[in-house]
Amino acid sequence: MSLETTLQQIYDLPISASIRENVNAFPLIESLHVLAITLVFGTILIVDLRLVGVAAHRRSADRLIRELLPYTWVAFALAVISGVLMFVSNAPAYAANLEFQLKLVAIALAGVNMAIFHSTAHRRIADWDTDLPPPAASRVSGFLSLALWTVVIVLGRWIGFTLDVLF
Questions:
Q1: C-alpha angle 155-156-157 in degrees, rounded to nearest 5
Q2: Using omega within 30 degrees of 0 as the cis cutoff, is the peptide bond preceding 133 cis?
Q3: 53: alpha, beta or left, given left = phi > 0 and alpha = psi -120 to 50?
């Protein structure tokens, strides 16, 4: 089965047609997606600013991470669900859109950056938790995260202006 066939099958799903045919469905899903990504970026921004050395009202980086991470994951799950719903409404067009492809790459790179941070600098957080500035590895991870999530947001907006509408 080819990728084109799979994308067409996704496009032909009843839920895909429902989203396309209901005048309110896509704007509602897109609004939820924007709100979710705002919460994702906002919570990540707070942590990343602490990781790059900006003092927080709570000096402990570990406490900040533990308190905000649950909100980040819930918002990320909502962003993924709403993003998938937008994708299925026009799968062939999204899959062919360069900005969409680059957005997915940026999200994957942000995930890799987070995994590297949690498997390296975060494991030694007790050694530097209240230090300013944090160690170089934490600062690099924070700057990369800020850059990658900014790219995700910019590309997400760009998709709306470059997507070939197929319905």
A1: 90
A2: yes
A3: left
Which of 37, 15, 1 lies closest to 87 in space, CA to CA? 15
Q: Among 34, 106, 119, 110, which residue's Cα sits nearest to residue 75?
A: 34
Please give the chain's pLDDT, 167 residues, in tens.
899 999 999 999 999 999 999 999 999 999 999 999 999 999 999 999 999 998 777 678 999 999 999 999 999 999 999 999 999 999 999 999 999 999 999 999 999 999 999 999 999 999 999 888 899 999 999 999 999 999 999 999 999 899 987 65
Sign of the CA dihedral running 141, 142, 145, 146: negative
Tell me the C-alpha distance between 136 and 74, whole Å.
29
Distance CA 131, CA 124 (A): 12
Residue 163 falls in which region: left (phi positive, over 0), alpha (psi -120 to 50) or beta? beta
**How many other β-carbons are positioned within 10 Å of the β-carbon of residue 50?**
25
CA torsion through residues 136, 142, 147, 151, sign: positive
